[in-house]
Design a protein that fits this description.
Blueprint: H1 14-17, H2 26-47, E1 63-70, E2 81-90, E3 93-94, E4 100-103, H3 122-126, H4 135-142, E5 146-149, H5 152-162, E6 170-173, H6 174-181, H7 189-195, H8 199-205, H9 214-232, H10 240-249
Length: 263
């Protein structure tokens, strides 16, 4: 199914987005919230009480696969979003009909860096909408949802900086899930997609797309998550608590939210 893009510049007022501004940093708020899920899941597993938890499969929760392409963390507080894609889920699969993707005008020239796609040229970016014309739309799509991505903490670091009031339900990292499953070889998004034979599905969903562009990466992560879930839990879909706990089991020190680059 081909993606249908929401018109760039369509605005959702902050009241409709349901944003809640607090004095705490976004990364602190989301870590506290997600830690509750992880601890609950671990306690249930340790105590052998899975049967006592009200069963709702992970995909009963609101989710969205997200990817950002940015100028890089070396820019510090001035790091800019160059491209963003968000793909809400319908049940256990990403809903391409609701996908949103846009390049973003950073209002400055962007030096060529290894992680910046050759397609994100200054000419292309100059013709794109500015972030302030698309931020409310992104907030309305993502507020209250679980954010899915490959090494998603990196995307969240920049997204939460650019939308300080955004409160996601938590993060689900397909990179960590890949590690927890013990997949062999490199665990970059392209490699894992190929290892699970998802390449043709991603190409069909994003005709003409390419890795390291926001829509391709978001769709790839969205298709990867249910494939990993089925591989790890072949008989019964996990709850969101179990899924987050399993993802946390694949964490490594370099997965911290202050990653050095966004790519």
């Amino acid at each position: 199914m081909a993606a249908t893009f929401i018109k760039a510049g369509t605005r959702v007022p902050p009241s409709a987005a349901g944003l809640q501004l607090t004095g705490r940093r976004p990364r602190d708020r989301i870590l506290d919230h997600q830690r509750e899920y992880i601890e609950q899941g671990r306690d249930a597993v340790i105590a052998g009480k899975d049967a006592e938890i009200e069963y709702l499969p992970w995909h009963a929760e609101p989710l969205a696969a997200v990817d950002l392409e940015g100028t890089g963390a070396q820019d510090g507080a001035s790091e800019a979003i160059l491209e963003i894609a968000a793909v809400p889920f319908s049940g256990p699969a990403p809903n391409l009909a609701e996908a949103y993707s846009t390049v973003v005008n950073p209002d400055r020239p962007v030096p060529r860096r290894p992680w910046i796609s050759p397609g994100l040229t200054d000419t292309t970016l100059a013709a794109a909408p500015r972030w302030d014309s698309t931020a409310d739309l992104v907030a309305g799509m993502l507020d209250g949802r679980w954010i899915v991505g490959h090494n998603v903490g990196v995307d969240w670091r920049l997204l939460s900086r650019r939308i300080p009031g955004l409160r996601a339900a938590g993060l689900i990292d397909t990179l960590r899930l890949s590690r927890a499953e013990g997949l062999p070889g490199p665990l970059g998004l392209e490699h894992v997609v190929d290892a699970l034979d998802l390449g043709s599905a991603v190409r069909d969903a994003v005709p003409g797309g390419q890795p390291h562009r926001a829509l391709w990466d978001a769709v790839a992560a969205g298709l990867l998550l249910p494939a990993l879930v089925e591989k790890i839990w072949p008989e019964r879909a996990p709850t969101i608590t179990q899924l987050v706990a399993r993802s946390d089991a694949g964490r490594q020190p370099q997965d911290a939210l202050d990653q050095d680059a966004l790519f």
